Amino acid sequence: MLDIRRRTGVLFVAISMGHLILISLQIPSKSGVPVFQSVTFGTFARVQGTTASTVYGLRHFWSNYIWLRGVRAENDTLKRQLSDLQVQLQEQRALATRSERLQQLLNLQSATTVPTVAAEVIAGNPNPGMLTITIGRGAADGVQKDMAVIAPAGIVGRIIGTPAAHAARVQLLIDRNAAAGAFTERTRAGGMVAGADKDPPLIMDLVSNMADVKPGDVVVASGVDGIYPKGFVIGRVEISERGSGLYRTITVRPVVDFSSLEEVLVVLVPPRPATPDETAEPAAAPPAAAPAGPPK
Amino acid sequence: MKTVAVLAALAIALVLQATLAGLSMAGGTRVNLVLVAVVYAALAFGPVTGMLAGTAGGLVQDAIAGGIVGIGGLSKTLVGFLVGVLGAQFIVSTTVPRLLMFVAASFVHEVCFQALYALVETRGFRMQYSAALIQALVNGLVGILAFFLVERGPDLLQRRRSWRTASSRRRY
């Protein structure tokens, strides 16, 4: 009887061919999720959820019950800070009321609060080549493919693949295959922010050489992609130089610290087809053509 | 027994890798524990086991990561096979050759992985050589530690037990 294990070369060629067929099968089928991928992800998400709970439990036990050095002093400091912050809060409330009144006077549509659900990051990506995370919310919580994922600081990424019942995969905005429609808050110069394999990890492309973009400008989502809510912060321009072609060379530092994501918010608004942005200036618009307005 | 050990090593590596990446994104990209397990299996058990471990580990890693299933699998299969063949041809039972093998295997894996993605996505070949080198070195150190623990661990435990027994006898 033929022992395939003794024919190493044949086995290697057979396995390699199998891989190549498997890869080629996936390239044209962009819409459906392969069964193997779906089942493996669902199962692994359960295991990873348990592991993450155990690790978080141990960390919380350590930090809440064992590692309590200097807590009294810290408590006193925090109480003082709380008092200061309460005073500041009152001032901010007064400012907010005044802003809202001014907004009504200008007949601007008040910002609507998008429905969100909080989710815990239960795993990072087991493959260092792809920047994704797994969150502990899934289809049972209303999470769907292509929904935006945000953090208090700004945009994190979007849901990719079909979510499992209680887990979903999130493609981070800094992944090299991720992109979002964006414009600068100051001059509303429109373009596309995409992930890059370098530091800073975001580039802003398709912004005309004529546009006025300076380091420090805040970059926000334009909403034209139909995924990310308009006006949410992406990052700040770090380098803005005149490019050799039609477009500027712009790098963007994200506002979200992707190295320590523990909890995120999933925006429970299904994605809509991409539409042209109405408020962002076209890429070739003259500098400072429109003033920065409040995010809608 | 060998199959169970290799599968268990791959499963543990996969869970540890995902947990590490969950705790720190930077930490998760600095090491590839599944690749370390594949190279270990190839060095310890030969090209067939290395190749099959690479196939299994790579495919599962691809399926969980959400990319194109097969790219990581093919890269790891190739690395497992090459390391197994080289390990059978040369003496790699000491620390330095093993470290070189782990570092070279990690680098070859990264080149294959990025090249296959470039082919599939029809884009230019992009690779961060410094990051790949750091990952290869970290993988090498983790692999050497794994060999040390598996080969010397039982012996060290036995010595520790003997020392404790002797000291308790002296006391009484």
Descriptive report:
The complex is a heterodimer of chains A (296) and B (172). Chain A is globular, with a radius of gyration of 24 Å. In chain A, a hairpin with a 4-residue loop joins strand 3 and strand 4 (155-160). In chain A, the strands form two sheets. Chain A has a six-stranded antiparallel barrel. A six-stranded antiparallel beta barrel of chain A has the order 6-7-8-11-10-9. Chain A has a domain at 76-110. With 296 residues, chain A is an alpha+beta fold. Chain A contains three helices and twelve strands. Chain A has helices at residues 8-26, 35-66, 71-105, and strands at residues 116-123, 132-135, 148-150, 155-160, 168-172, 179-184, 190-195, 202-205, 218-221, 233-241, 249-254, 263-267. Helices cover 29% and strands 22% of the residues of chain A. Chain B is mainly α. In chain B, 86% of the residues lie in helices and 0% in strands. The N and C termini of chain B lie far apart (43 Å). The model of chain B has no long low-confidence stretch (mean pLDDT 86).
- Count of strand segments of chain A: 12
Largest interface: A-B, 49 and 51 residues
Give the number of helices of chain A. Answer: 3
Unreliable segments of chain B (pLDDT under 50, ≥5 consecutive)? Answer: none
- Strand order, sheet with most strands of chain A: 1-2-5-4-3-12
What is the quaternary state of this protein? heterodimer
Strand content bin of chain B: under 5%
End-to-end separation of chain B in angstroms reads 43 Å
Structural class by helix and strand composition of chain A: alpha+beta
Give the fraction of residues assigned to helices of chain B: over 70%
The total count of strands of chain B amounts to: 0
CATH class of chain B: Mainly Alpha
